[in-house]
Specification:
The protein is an alpha+beta fold. The chain is built from 21 helices and 6 strands. A hairpin with a 6-residue loop joins strand 1 and strand 2. It is globular and about 70 Å long. The relative contact order is 0.14.
């Protein structure tokens, strides 16, 4: 497409005009569900080692890190909440990216909201517009950001967080353009965590959230950023997705009239996005009466773009070195799904990844690249299990559960929230009170009541 007006200016026009009247009831409800899901994940992870390690780098203040009794400076609160929300890879996702928007945008919006005393309505706008931009940016160069060695949620998230905070602060057009331009130089997040299953991906959402806050505040103070940050010769997509020509029509077409966030998916399993349909296939295979000892091998048809993160090197994926690494091993996720009928937070523990039965079954699972796989536009699963009898069982899953084709009901989502709160050490009563409070967050006059989430 021909770009006559810098993209940051076009986006700024849209962001500056943010108004609740432009959000359908469906979009507002999606934002509410995103906030509830993110908060539950923050509570679930509040006692984890990686959250405590993040807190060790945090400064004191009056902003809320959900599930923690003391306050922090706003940037630290955003970092802690984002890290906790994304840490178990149980947060929302978006087919076409894939990207995780809630774990970036909600922490940024909450932190700046408490800092600046914004209303719940302004928080709603920041959530809707920030998540929308994050998802749309993920469609511009599918697979190319991962191919370049970066985490899309991390780098795109910084841009979207800057946009969300700009909306929360009601910045003018020039300030918003500069916020996006500044954020382009703050974006970061490589995927080398895959080598040893270490923790860096966990912090990406939080880092993007706090970086977006700084970009917007600097812009409000008068700091200037490049208008051509997205499409420029040395711009964002040139740096982070050099292998593919950006398709900016996916970013700009129908902007403001069609909300892609209405198709955001909530995960039923606490692991990598593209593993989810394959876990469904494995669970279905077990439901058919197949026993682990009956299986000679399982072959999975997969999208080429998922292989380097979720399948290779296959010897490591068969024997993940850490619980976090196990979340990005499709063979291991399938094995515990088959054996346990689920893949929740408890399945990814030191003891579970060392279980001989899980490792043995995972070791019999391999892959074949399917050139017709629709990834990343659609996340599907397909396995062929060869049994000792010579029979071949085939199971397909044509969509991701929790997404547009099989959405998670409100009861299921709220049930997930309560389960996460209990996992994090809260009582069911505390979880129910928090859930009810979060349900009305966007109608609040200010965000002072977030203190109710400090336990």
């Amino acid at each position: 497409m021909t770009i006559e007006t810098p993209i940051a200016e076009t986006l700024a026009d849209w962001l500056v005009a943010a108004d609740v009247s432009k959000l359908s009831a469906q979009t507002q409800e999606m934002c509410r569900r995103i906030a509830i899901d993110v908060a539950g994940l923050c509570i679930a992870a509040r006692n984890e080692d990686y959250v405590h390690a993040t807190i060790a780098a945090a400064g004191p203040g009056d902003a809320t890190a959900i599930g923690h009794a003391r306050g922090f400076d706003p940037f630290s609160a955003a970092l802690i909440n984002g890290t906790a929300a994304h840490g178990e890879d149980y947060d929302d996702t978006f087919e076409g990216g894939p990207v995780h928007s809630g774990a970036v945008i909600i922490p940024a919006a909450l932190a700046i909201g408490e800092m600046e005393g914004v209303s719940g309505e302004r928080l709603l706008l920041a959530t809707a517009y920030g998540c929308e931009l994050l998802c749309r940016l993920g469609l511009v160069t599918p697979k190319a950001i991962h191919k370049a060695g970066f985490h899309p949620t991390a780098v795109i998230g910084t841009m979207a967080a800057a946009a969300a905070v700009s909306v929360a602060l009601n910045l003018n057009k020039q300030q918003t353009v500069s916020a996006l331009g500044i954020a382009g130089s703050m974006a970061s997040g490589i995927i080398e965590y895959l080598a040893e299953g270490t923790w860096t991906k966990r912090m990406h959402a939080g880092w993007a959230a706090q970086s977006g806050m700084r970009a917007a505040l600097m812009a409000r103070g008068g700091f200037l950023g490049p208008r051509t940050v997205f499409e420029g010769t040395h711009g964002f997509f040139h740096a982070f997705a050099p292998s593919r020509k950006p398709a900016f029509n996916f970013l700009l077409d129908d902007l403001g009239s069609r909300w892609v966030i209405n198709d955001i998916a909530f995960k039923p399993y606490a692991c990598g996005t593209m593993t989810q349909p394959f876990i469904d296939c494995a669970i279905e295979l077990a439901r058919q009466g197949v026993k682990a000892e009956d299986i000679v091998s399982i072959s999975c048809d997969v999208g080429e773009g998922t292989v380097h993160r979720l399948w290779e090197p296959l010897s490591v994926k068969h024997n993940p070195p850490t619980p976090y690494a196990a979340k990005f091993s499709t063979p291991f996720c399938m094995a515990i799904g088959f054996l346990d009928g689920k893949a929740g937070l408890s399945q990814f523990s030191e003891a579970r990844i060392k279980d001989p039965a899980a490792r043995d079954l995972a070791g019999r699972i391999s892959f074949v690249i399917n050139p017709d796989d629709p990834y990343p536009d659609q996340f599907i699963g397909h396995l062929k299990a060869t049994l000792k009898t010579g029979e071949v069982r085939e199971v397909k899953q044509g969509f991701m559960r929790g997404g547009a084709q099989a959405p998670m009901s409100l009861n299921e989502l709220e049930g997930k929230f309560i389960d996460n709160a209990i996992y994090g050490g809260w009582s069911k009563t505390d979880g129910e009170k928090a859930r009810d409070h979060l349900s009305g967050l966007f109608a609040a006059k200010d965000l002072g009541s977030l203190r109710l989430l400090r336990l």
